[in-house]
User: Fold this.
Amino acid sequence: MDEYDEMYGIEDDYDQQFADELEVLAERDIVKPTKNPPSPSEEGIENLLRDPPITPKAKRQKQEGGVVKRLFGSQLTDEVTAPMTRSDDITPPSSPEQYASTHRSTPAVLDISGFAAFSQTPQRPAPAAVSASQCVLKRPPLGGEYITVTDSSGNRVYLRQKENTGGKLADPRRILHLDGSLGLLSEPIEVLREQVAERHHQQVVEESQRLSEMLSRGVTEQFGELGGPEEEEEDNVDEEGRRSRLWVDRFSPHHYTELLSDDFTNRCLLKWLKLWDTVVFGRERKVRPPQADRHAQNQNKFKPNQAAENANFKTFKTKSQITEEILEAELDHYKRPKFKVAMLSGPPGLGKTTLAHVIAKHAGYNVVEINASDDRSAEVFQRRIDTATQMKSVLGTNQRPNCLIIDEIDGAPTAAINILLATLNRKDGHGGEEGGESTKKKKKKEGVLLRPIICICNDLYAPALRPLRQQAFLLAFPQTQPSRLTQRLAEISRVQGMKADTGTLMALCEKTDNDIRSCINTLQFLHGRGQRMVDTRTVQSVAVGQKDQSKGLFHLWQETFQLPRLKRKRVGPGFEEGPGEGGGAQRFQHILLLASSSGEYEKVSQGLYDNYLSMRVRDPHMHIVCEGLQWLSFSDQLNQVIMHGQNFSLMRYLPFLSVTFHFLFAHAHVPRLSYPHSQHEATTRLQANRNALSTMLAEIPPSVRSRISELSLTVDILTLLLDILCPKLRPVNPQLFSTREKQQMRELIDTMLAYNLSYRQDRTPEGQYTYILEPRVDEAVKFPGLPPRRQLTYQAKQTISREMEQEKMRRAEHLMMLRNPAAAPKEKVKSTSDPKSSKKNHQQRLENIVRQTTVEIRPEVDFFGRAVAPKPQRLLTSETGEKSVEQSMGTAVGNSDVWFRFNEGVSNAVRRNVYIRELL
Amino acid sequence: MSLWVDKYRPVSLGKLDYHKEQAVQLKNLVQCGDFPHLLVYGPSGAGKKTRIMCLLKELYGAGVEKLRIEHQTIVAPSKKKIEINTIASNYHLEVNPSDAGNQDRVVIQELIKTVAQSQQIQSSTQREFKVVLLTEVDRLTKDAQHALRRTMEKYMGTCRLILCCNSTSKVIGPIRSRCLAVRVPLPSTEEVCSVLSTVCKKEGLTLPSELARQISERSGRNLRKALLMCEACRVQQYPFSADQAVPETDWEVYLRETANAIVSQQSPQRLMEVRARLYELLTHCIPAEIIMKGLVSELLSNCDGQLKTEVTHIAAYYEHRLQLGNKAIYHLEAFTAKFMAIYKKFMEDGLDGLVF
Assistant:
């Protein structure tokens, strides 16, 4: 340690000693960088000589060491040129060991050259840096030649080259002499020698220590791992960390050009995202699309199988054209594209999420992702959308605008989707007023969505997504090209040191349905199990690549009714021999897997049932159809047992129905399938008919009701009853019916009432009035294709309807009389018997009224309200007259049943008790 | 009460038109004022209900004719409310438990128990038991029938059961053994004819005997149907003519057309059409068993003798499956397809025989 102290001391000395010179040097560099005296003086040469060692001083000491070495190597003649020409060699030693060695060696060297002090500069850089900063330039000097030096940390500095390269020309002798004369050995040589000896000693000590350590470690290893495990564990953790990183992540694409997915899709999404440039970045729109195109073209050039790709393009040209049109469509008045949301859909593992991320980054966005792992309840969703679309990170370097990616949106609750929709449509609120200056006022309107949103889903037709579908730019994700996928897999396996030929990788792709993630995971799995050689057999035997995903019912039906094509040949030649061979077994397993993963056996069997007859199967003897039906009825029986006995263990036999149907009805053609509605329709109609019947039954009087049931009604009674209800009636007024006809009519009405049927007037859409039977049991017994039953005319129905109403009233009154037999007959008796026995209610009232009006004497007043004195004679006459009037009125009221009183403004002046029975 | 069926229905055992010896037996049965549980069975339209009502009247007097409809609500253990209509007089209660569908067991347990547990107060003037009349017992689920077993024995003191059904094959053995089975067969053609002519006489009409015979054949000796047909004929045309067209029920016509379609062509396409027709029949509330039966009888009439046994055999097979299963349409279609296969093979063999 004293060595170092010494060194410090030396350094200090150096500083003190050379302070002046350093200052001068600095001055020269700064003040007159160009005007160096062309003729070198003694002073100039001195400086010059000192210069090169000083310049790298600002750097690492190791460099310096190198330089110094070089200096000596080149006989000190080219002290200046050496760092200039061989600047490459200055590159620092990469390993610390080397570093140390140079470190140690320097003093020895410097000892000789007399630059000892410089070697210590890195430890005490401060004073040196002052001077160094003046001659080491960060940028190239304006005039004159210079050399560039790059250190290990990548910093580049520029060293000015002195015009005066006389040093080269100067003879070595002189320089040597100069060296000596300069007195560079600031320390006596004895001291330096001592230091060297010390160093040697230290080295020896260190070496011995190391050896003893090694020995002791060997002992501990032998006797038991005391310190070992920790180290090992560390190692393991490291290894584990490296391994636990999924290959999928490690090899996921980071650039647009690395994407494996279909180019057309990529380009469409990118184009769509570029449409936002106007509003997000304020760029003009027209500039961008060509660039995107160029990208895609580049991409195309890279592709090995361009031909195949082109062919593919043609097949969905129409669809692509539609998409292009969408992309070319005008921006709305906020300069946003028409569709605010892009929706990527496709089966898992094709790289939808990766595509979205890569493209968003490519287009200069900061990606904000919401996926199923986040809470997606309505409020949280709202908050996150607002955060993502309306804010921008202020801190940090990430100043780019956000692009919201909503992953796995098909699992989101409907409320969340509605919120998203509301966000999309929010513009409409302010839309009208703002108009053209929207870009200017962008800041003000917080509500408007101004950032792109990309949604990703597997099932585009999830019910919750229905409203969103109409407002989204839909991009269906096609299958990855197996060739491209294989290529990528080959790359990965090469990097990981696995051997796999293309055929194997193709088989893997096929097995996983070109699911990139699944392929890579399978590879990693195999790798992790220590398999470095992968062949087709392993791939086929491994069960990991298969997904237990449920595809749509239509997919299942299609698979069931369609023979797999072409690839059979590769799998095995046994296919042609019969379905029982290898190919058959595979198909069996395939369909079984599909059917059991779908789970909706009821729906599945219904779909099979509805579609199997339209399959193109050669079946002249109907044996296949019989077989299929046998299976259907078996599965129905199973279902019944399962449901009735709760015996769900039998459920495992249900998927075999699909398998059987596959072997019975599968055909090479693409089947045309329809969704099974028949059962549902049948149930609905059955229910409607049932309801009509039960409405009818509910009101039938008990004496009839006890004799009929729903069953007998439909099977026996109803049709005939409806016939009976349509007798031939003369189209005349019922008053003119003969007694026989009247009798018939009465019976008809009786029957209708007994069976709770009636006619209701209804208006057809054409505006005509008809009478329809209520409840609509005629619908329940009418069959299509049969000759229509005889119907009554409108007039006849009208007549019947009216007569029925009357009959109903009659019966109701009759019933009322029966219910309170005290009131009705008594009144009847009274009205027929003499009226004098007791005064009728209304007569009493009437007499009172008469008396009140007539007897009441009002004081007469003239026009001005003064009382008029009544004349005595007139009063007399009036008195007698009044009496007679009163009496005559009273008797008249008493004698007649009809009476009237004029009430001003009231129309019911004439009152009389009238019974229904008297009118009918 | 103006349909002839209702108007001229006999109301006492003595006035019954046919099976008079049975009527006498029934009269003797209730003469002592008591009777065992009864299981009355027979085809539809034979007069089961008429006989039961006559029996009750014999037992209780005219009081049983004062009927009222009661809407009962029963709460199942699963808290589900079951609404059911009952027809009751002071002396009896008529229930159709199969109205409750799968929950009929609850109806049996709750309703019958409440009726059976209540005792008559004045047993001196009245019978000491009430009668519960259960209709359509053959449509009861097995659970409900098992629920009935113990109830029948336990409440024998206060309650008699009269079970009414079309066929005993669906009634479990324990119940059959607890009841006195009374079979009410269909009236013979002559009996139907005589009933028809009596009714027409009462109506003041003259019915040609040919027409009466024709009606009774068309109705399949189902008296209810025969009377309705007769009345429909009357509405159609009066005075009657002997060769008058007898109106039929629509579904029978439709079924016959379906059978003809099956016989005329056998192919998957035709099967598809037949399926649509079968669906149509099912949606019109025609029970699958009746469709099956009608189909078989229509098809058999088109078959050769040696084919008949085979067709009957497969019909029985698929009818059984129909009972076990749930979706009637599968089994009906399976039967149709099987028939098509057999028929087609038979016809082709016949053609080959002709050629060689």
User: Anything to note?
Assistant: Residues 189-223 of chain A form the longest helix (35 residues). The radius of gyration of chain A is 54 Å.
